[in-house]
């Protein structure tokens, strides 16, 4: 693959790409003279064929889930069925104006209402708000609700949120944004939260705990009931980070585990392409205790009519987090996905996701790879540590990641969680075939064998990509984000 | 091989301390820590004159892999910071015990709970 220049570099003065089926010219009459351009905008001047080739080549450079196995899994992007996208783009949905009257949007509101109901079923909670527009905002909503609950009871001494050291980095950031101090507790050698440390950490200053289950270590928190009792016993509440919902979908309920509030990344589990920074949907679900504090608006159903519930109907709400109802298109994709799968299909999602992960894990262990938690069953993901190979050959997890690209696989998550040295966090998801998983195993074995024979060759990977190793330090310190080439003549 | 100079003191969080003989102590991160982090891209330091509580996160080292807190090994007052790291954070990688020092402070309490070189080496061996 060759690198592709930016489209401005294809530009030549006067070159045009007139459409063969011209659209009507926009009527500019009535625009104030000050708003009219005096010269054309500095756009690239290219032919139609150049445009087609440029963007086709760019799309071919994309190492994407449509072309390659992508073992970052639902963490970044699992396969999103085309139908979810197609149905969410029906003209009736696209043409709806958010300020249109409720009676003109009853079908749309019905979809959101049913989505709220289905998410209650998936979490076991009593109330859902769809408005948070990203995972981080969903986390913020959840912890802000915990705070609102303590404050409503006049209990203002609770200023600490407990976060296990295996948590996602967003958890301590969220607690800090909500005005809390973060108290970190360790994980024991088997991957569970250290309950003795938790007992020592809780007290009258505990507002709550933020937890992902299964954790980022790819294992289920086995003593979750005991953990919940410790936190509740101290007067704190439990927040569930829904990042790993793909592992338990339709099989275990956060409410039953003892959680009070949950955020769910619809864009991870429920069929939205993402991983490039959005848009997303970090909806929140809460039990009866926290339900009054859910962010508004929420879709209500009264006398057969759907209507937005706002601050007026829900005075204890933490308020609005987004304009209108969040990212409507993402909510619709999740709705379609859940309706297509049904409850039974959702159970199969988590079943196949964990089966695929455990198949990969057991076969890699058989092939001589070290697991971070060899005595544990995998959830929807698991961790290989390459510490031994790195010590033996000097070939690191990053080198494996680059060498995988040459073998037609996107790299799994590397160097996260931070607790495990030289790690690969592998999440195959539910939609990969056994043949694909076998090829991935063969590739890892191949790289490991090559590392032992000729470490320098692995360190030269990738050889087949348009760029080789990037200067990560320079990219972070001196990001070059704008094209600084030749200005277009019209812009002079 | 990871360097662990015998004359320094260490914390379990992979920081090193050197007594300067004038009542101040210099703090940095160990060779092991910089290897684990990889190439540093940013270092955030406390302000000179600021007060530290023991165990408080007082500096941040950010690498291409992760951002990590550096904790105050003891309570005290910051007397100097290594301003060179703002332009050249890679000094922590190339010279963790020398030009890559982070900050200097005047402890308010006697040193407690620190490891000597041999004990820190043992900790590293145990972590494998």
Descriptive labels:
heterodimer, A: 492 residues, alpha/beta, Aspartate Aminotransferase, domain 2, Aspartate Aminotransferase, domain 1, globular, disordered C terminus, B: 128 residues, six-stranded antiparallel β-sheet, 4 helices, 33% strand
In short:
With 492 residues, chain A is of the alpha/beta class.
Could you characterize what this model shows?
The complex is a heterodimer of chains A (492) and B (128). Helices cover 37% and strands 12% of the residues of chain A. Chain A is globular and about 75 Å long. With 492 residues, chain A is α/β, with parallel strands linked by helices. Chain A has 2 domains: 84-341, Aspartate Aminotransferase, domain 2, CATH 3.40.640; 343-469, Aspartate Aminotransferase, domain 1 (Alpha-Beta Complex). In chain B, the strands form 2 sheets. Chain B has a 6-stranded antiparallel β-sheet. Chain B has a 3-stranded antiparallel β-sheet with strand order 4-6-7, with no helix packed on it. Chain B has one domain (10-109): RNA polymerase II/Efflux pump adaptor protein, barrel-sandwich hybrid domain (OB fold (Dihydrolipoamide Acetyltransferase, E2P), Beta Barrel), CATH 2.40.50.100. Chain B has 4 helices and 9 strands, in the order E-E-E-H-E-E-E-E-E-H-H-E-H. Chain A binds chain B through residues 169, 387, 414-416, 418, 421, 472-473, 476-477, and chain B through 36, 38-42, 62, 64-68, 90, 128.
């Amino acid at each position: 693959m060759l690198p592709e220049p930016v489209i401005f570099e294809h530009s030549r003065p006067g070159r045009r790409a007139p459409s063969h089926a011209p659209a009507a010219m926009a009527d500019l009459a009535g625009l104030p003279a000050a708003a009219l351009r005096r010269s054309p905008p500095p756009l690239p001047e290219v032919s139609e064929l150049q445009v087609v080739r440029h963007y086709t080549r760019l799309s071919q450079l994309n190492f994407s889930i449509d072309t390659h196995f992508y073992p970052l899994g639902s963490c970044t992007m699992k396969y999103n069925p085309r139908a979810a996208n197609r149905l969410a783009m029906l003209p009736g949905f696209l043409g709806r104006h958010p300020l249109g009257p409720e009676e003109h949007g009853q079908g749309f509101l019905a979809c959101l209402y049913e989505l709220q109901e289905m998410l209650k079923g998936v979490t076991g909670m009593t109330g859902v708000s769809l408005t948070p527009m990203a995972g981080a905002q969903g986390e913020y909503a959840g912890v802000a609700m915990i705070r609102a609950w303590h404050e409503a009871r006049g209990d203002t001494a609770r200023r600490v949120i407990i976060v296990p050291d295996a948590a996602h980095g967003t958890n301590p950031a969220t607690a800090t944004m909500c005005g809390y101090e973060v108290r970190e507790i360790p994980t024991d050698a088997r991957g569970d939260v250290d309950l003795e440390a938790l007992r020592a950490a809780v007290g009258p200053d505990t507002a709550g705990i933020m937890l992902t289950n299964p954790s980022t270590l790819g294992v289920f928190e086995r003593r979750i009931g005991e953990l919940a009792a410790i936190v509740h016993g101290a007067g704190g509440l439990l927040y569930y980070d829904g990042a790993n919902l793909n592992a338990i979908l339709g099989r275990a309920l956060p409410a039953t585990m003892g959680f009070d509030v949950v955020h769910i990344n619809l864009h991870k589990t429920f069929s939205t392409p993402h991983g490039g920074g959005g848009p997303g949907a970090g909806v929140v679900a809460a039990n009866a205790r926290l339900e009054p504090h859910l962010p508004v608006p929420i879709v209500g159903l009264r006398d057969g009519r759907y209507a937005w519930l706002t601050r007026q109907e829900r005075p204890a709400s933490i308020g609005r987090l987004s304009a209108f109802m969040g990212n409507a298109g993402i909510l619709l994709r999740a709705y379609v996905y859940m309706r297509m799968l049904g409850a039974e299909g959702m159970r199969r999602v988590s079943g196949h996701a964990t089966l695929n992960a455990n198949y990969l894990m057991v076969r890699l262990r058989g092939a001589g790879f070290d697991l971070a938690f060899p005595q544990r069953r995998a959830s929807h993901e698991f961790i290989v540590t390459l510490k031994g190979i790195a010590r033996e050959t000097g070939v690191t997890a990053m080198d494996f990641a680059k060498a995988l690209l040459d073998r037609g696989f996107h790299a799994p998550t590397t160097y996260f969680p931070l607790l495990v040295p030289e790690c690969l966090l592998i999440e195959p998801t539910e939609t990969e075939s056994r043949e694909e998983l076998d090829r991935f195993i063969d590739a890892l074995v191949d790289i490991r064998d090559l590392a032992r024979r000729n470490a320098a060759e692995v360190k030269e990977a990738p050889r087949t990509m348009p760029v080789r190793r990037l200067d990560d330090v320079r990219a972070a310190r001196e990001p070059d984000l704008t094209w600084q080439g030749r200005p277009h003549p019209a812009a002079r | 091989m990871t360097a662990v100079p015998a004359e320094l003191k260490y914390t379990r969080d992979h920081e090193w301390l050197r007594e300067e003989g004038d009542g101040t102590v210099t703090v940095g991160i160990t060779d092991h820590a910089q290897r684990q982090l990889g190439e540093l891209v940013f270092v955030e330091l406390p302000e000179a004159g600021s007060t530290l509580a023991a165990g408080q996160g007082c500096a941040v080292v950010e690498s291409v892999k992760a951002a990590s807190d550096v904790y105050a090994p003891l309570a005290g007052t910051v007397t100097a910071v290594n301003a060179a790291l703002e332009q050249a954070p890679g000094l922590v990688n190339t010279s963790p015990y020398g030009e890559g020092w982070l900050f200097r402070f005047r402890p308010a309490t006697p040193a407690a709970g620190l490891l000597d070189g041999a004990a820190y080496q043992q900790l590293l061996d145990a972590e494998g």
